[in-house]
Amino acid sequence: MSTIAIPVDALLCSNFYCHSHCIDIERYYNNIIWCLTVAASNCIPAVKVGLQKHWWTPDLDNLKQQCIDITNVWNSISRPRSGNINAERLRCKYRYKQAIKDAAFEADQRLNDDLFQYVCSKDNDSFWKSWRKRFCSNNIKPTTVLNGKMGDGIQHEFTEYYKNVLKPNTVGGDQKFQTELDSLMSTHMQLTCHAVTRINIADLSTLIARLKRRKAAGLDGIVNEHVIYGGDQLYVHLCMLFNALLAHSFVPSDFCTGI
Predict the structure, then answer these.
(1) Bridge-partner residues for 146, per DSSP?
(2) Quick one: pLDDT at residue 65?
């Protein structure tokens, strides 16, 4: 964060609704997003999902590559059924298969221990998360019968079910926040008249404390956890960014923070 260039001219600009510094603000915003993205990619462990299992390790990758290499050599010499090359190929294949079995077994043991620990600590969220990760299939198969309906009747059953599922948890929540924002902006504008509205660290900290975790990212790829755990330097940059946005009545592209 300390390497981000602060658009001082845009912050000190006294022209109300000035659009001449929009490029500087856009660059400033993109730099903040880049820092958060790089920090997350370097500090948060990630597991490749799909082709590999959750228990897959770099050691298994190495054993797999050894099998591929020795098999390529074996293929290049007409696939002999005896000799040193064939014996080495079989040894590599055996080590690879045995390592997969051991890794899967250890993962099952750890899962059982984790489930037992979550049950004892009454951590329902973690328990069901581990359960679904282990036992629930990611490959959903199409159905021909739904609630006793077939053919075109399935479409009606599907619609009736999901029209309620996709409703927001808080009905009218978006309108509530919009009304609250309009009221605060109107109050600020009346108090400051034609002066530039300012947001201080205390206001920003209050808003950040209200952010909810485990929410989907927006167009910029930033989730609430980026902001919550960003630290004091991020808060200062966000405070300056929001003040610049208010002063110039400008919204950067892909701007979708939940604050």
Answers:
(1) 149
(2) 92
